[in-house]
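## retry 2 of 3
previous attempt timed out at serialization; input unchanged, resubmitting
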Amino acid sequence: MDEWLALIRDDPEMRVDGFAQAATPKGETVRVESRGLAVWTAYSGNELRGNMAWFDHSRGTIVVKNPDDEIIDKMKRLANKLSARVVGDEGEEY
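## retry succeeded, writing output
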């Protein structure tokens, strides 16, 4: 966790929020809290009302839900700095 937080602090495109919050189609608010939850502020798909590129450190892995090609590229850059790998849900490596 310390390595992750240090990496995020040193990356001007990333911000540690410690939570993610979004509205559902029904207008309900969903909030997830996690010490290692960060947002990629430079992502072109960010929206004020919820669609953000969230990266969550949990149990030694970084989890990103539904990444597009732009997010996968950022994931690879971060993984390179951590000497880590980017692996999809089916075990595929990027």
